[in-house]
Write a structure and sequence with these properties.
Blueprint: E1 4-5, H1 15-24, H2 43-60, E2 66-71, H3 74-86, E3 92-97, H4 100-111, E4 115-121, E5 145-147, E6 150-151, E7 156-157, E8 169-172, E9 189-193, E10 204-209, H5 226-231, H6 241-256, H7 259-279, E11 284-285, E12 297-302, H8 308-317, E13 320-321, E14 332-335, H9 342-359
Helix pairs in contact: 1-6, 2-6, 3-4, 7-9
């Protein structure tokens, strides 16, 4: 039985994509081989990767003066790779801290020898808020401003794009990319791990503006040098071929489903329904400020934490899995990425009502 998987990542994938991959698994494009077995330098796979890039450019409206890179190491590697490509040791970089993933990026930048200036830190709210627009100042000499539009663990999301004061804006969009339209031209670099909305783990998509290429430190490994990877069409080494193939299938599905405008309407509706159910109850609570609530990751707590284990166990029996909150914050967390249908969200809402009634 297929369950509704509320995992924060690796996350639920579209069923139609999995079924197509299943049908092609042993004989891709009449080759008599799996896509995982063909050469990454052969014409069929080169065309497969080019198609995925073209679909991504179409969906996101990526301007011509940006490169799209398919890299390995996940978004976590980019915490270090961004400084490697944009700075020299001792340079200043500005960061906004809204939670654990921001903090990890900051730690990695410091380890790369940067003078990290945290221009806004939401610690006072226990990272349940984002800074108000215009409430922070970016140092004029900084190499870039980095932020995390959506904090997967805390369920905190920016409702606006920060003003980088003319500096390159760098965003870790792992949890939000493809969930709605974005204006790529406002960013210097966008990076995102694939395992939320784009496919399986192992692939990281990087979108980088051309003028930021060619600035890598001399010690940067070739596979982490944006310019070198761009010149080799992301194939300086063997790329994660199966992940790129699945990305292409997911992008095809998004295009067929009406694009990111349609996806945004579905995602907003799912989140609104779940938050409404939480807010209407005295049994459940969401800790995040209403103007900073994530569409993708919805944490919630029970009035009696002693019932957490029962909630998780009974939810799993009902086909609602991976609802346990991150170990650092506890409670529950429902990740409702693109592939989670409204039916899955409604099934969770119905279960929550039933569980509350049984606990009364």
């Amino acid at each position: 039985m297929r369950v509704y998987n509320f995992s924060a990542g690796p996350a639920q994938l579209p069923l139609e994509v999995l079924e197509r991959a299943q049908a092609e698994l042993t004989d891709w494009q009449g080759s008599g081989m799996s896509v995982m077995e063909v050469s990454h330098r052969g014409k069929p796979f080169v065309a497969c990767a080019a198609h995925a890039e073209a679909q991504l450019r179409t969906l996101l409206g990526i301007p011509d003066n940006y490169k799209v890179l398919f890299l390995q190491g996940g978004a976590t590697a980019q915490f270090s790779v961004v400084p490697m490509n944009l700075t020299q040791p001792g340079d200043t970089a500005a960061y906004i801290n809204t939670g654990q993933w921001s903090a990890k990026a900051i730690k990695a930048a410091i380890a790369q020898g940067l003078d990290v200036q945290v221009v806004a830190d939401e610690k006072a709210s226990s990272y349940t808020t984002v800074p108000e627009p215009g409430s922070f100042q970016v140092p004029a000499g900084a190499a870039y401003l980095h932020y995390t539009p959506n904090e997967t663990i805390g369920g905190v999301e920016f409702g606006y794009v920060p003003d980088a004061a003319g500096l390159p804006l760098v965003a870790d969009m792992s949890s939000t990319i493809l969930s709605r339209p974005i204006d790529v031209s406002r960013y210097g670099i966008i990076y995102a791990g694939a395992q939320k909305n784009m496919g399986p783990s192992g692939l990281c998509v990087v979108i980088v503006r051309d003028d930021l290429l060619g600035k890598a430190r001399s010690t940067t490994p070739g596979i982490f040098d944006y310019a070198a990877m761009a010149a080799a069409d992301s194939m300086l080494n063997t790329p994660p071929t199966f992940a790129i193939y699945l990305l292409g299938l997911i992008l095809d599905s998004l295009v067929a489903g009406g694009g990111l405008e349609a996806m945004a309407k579905r995602n907003q509706a799912k989140a609104a329904a779940l938050y409404a159910a939480i807010d209407a109850s005295d049994f459940y609570a969401n800790p995040v400020a209403p103007n900073a609530r994530s569409w993708m990751n919805v944490p919630f707590t029970l009035a009696n934490p002693g019932l957490d284990a029962d909630f998780i166990a009974q939810a799993a029996e009902a086909g609602l899995t991976n609802l346990k909150g991150h170990r650092s914050v506890g409670g529950m967390r429902a990740s409702i990425y693109n592939a989670m249908p409204m039916e899955g969200v409604q099934a969770l809402i119905d279960f929550m009502a039933e569980f509350e009634a049984s606990a009364a």
